[in-house]
Structure formats: structure tokens, C-alpha cells
Amino acid sequence: MNKKIVAATLGVLSATPAGAQTIEIVANGSPKSAPGSSQYFGGHAVVTPLLAPNETTKASLGLVTFSPGARTAWHTHPAGQLLIVSAGQGWLQQEGQERRTINAGDVVWIPAGVKHWHGATATSPMSHYAMTYFAGDKNVDWMEQVADKQYEAP
User: Fold this and answer.
1) How many domains does the chain have?
2) What's the CATH number where 104 sits?
3) How far is Cα 21 from Cα 105, in angstroms, rounded to an integer?
4) Do 103 and 72 form a contact (C-beta atoms < 8 A)?
5) Which domain covers residue 99, as residue numbers?
6) C-alpha of 8 from chain center
7) CA angle 64-81-33, nearest 5°?
């Protein structure tokens, strides 16, 4: 093989293209957890942001841990939300429908614009990873709190 071709090929393979992507690792325990705002959560919930949106994904990822009885306020997502239940048992309700039970290992897709809430059951804590997609610069529209009567209704 021609030495000039080999040299040119090696030069191309070893060069880093402008704007090249690199793998990002978020070390376990490095993100700072914070209590969920009482404006958006009822009861005690802890939110750990894990990954911010970028130009490629246009989604954020966080871990939310709910104590028994804790839940989100009613809300919608302009581009949808993916939940992966990682521990415990929780409840999820779409407006106008019955409350549903979700368990560790369940994967939940919430379509864009669907009004809903989710959280722990009254007796079990629950944790889930939440991947929320952005439409423009917005990923959630928060609404009113879930009343105890709504939360407790089957």
C-alpha cells in the first residue's frame, strides 16, 4: 500500500472533527438532590436532576423519590414524558380516568398534552426516573394541586 495513503488515512482517523460529540458520565451521587417545591408537589418528594437537555436529545432526565402520600400537582407536558418506576409502588391518574397503580419495573409513556399526576401510594414510597421532552424551551405546564379527595379516590 502507498505510504502516502496510509499516512493520510491515519491522519484522518486520528483527527478530532470540529464539534465532535464526547461521552458524558454523571457520576453516581454527584447531582445535588433537593426537596420538590411545594408549588409542584404535595407531600415530601426529592428531585435529583441527572441530565440536562442538549441540542441532540431535547430531553431532561431526573430521579424523583416520593414518600408515602406524596404526589405531583396536576400537569401536562408539551412533548410527552417517559417514566421508569425504579422502586416501590405508586399511583398515576389521567384527568377523567380512574387512578392506576404503577410498580417497580413499569415503564409509562404520557403523551403530549395529557393532564395527569403521579406519585407514591398512601402506604408505599415510590421512585421513578422521569425523562421529559422539550417543545421549544418548555417541558412542563404545572396546574393545581391534587386534592386529598382526588388522591384517595380509587
Assistant:
1) 1
2) 2.60.120.10
3) 31
4) no
5) 33-152
6) 45
7) 20
Note the pTM of the prediction, 2 decimals: 0.84
Look at residues 76, 81, 121 and name the one whose alpha carbon lies nearest to residue 100.
Answer: 121
**pLDDT(14) > 90:** no
Q: Is the pLDDT of residue 144 over 80?
A: yes
Angle in degrees, CA 102, 134, 30, rounded to 5: 70
CB 108 within 8 A of CB 101: no
**Is 11 domain-assigned?**
no
Residue with cell 417497580: 104
pLDDT for residue 40: 98
Mapping DSSP to helix (H, G, I), strand (E, B) and coil, where does residue 100 land? strand
- Examine residue 130 and state whether it is found in any structural domain, yes or no: yes
Collapse the DSSP code of 97 into the 3-class scheme (helix H, G, I; strand E, B; otherwise coil) and give the result.
coil
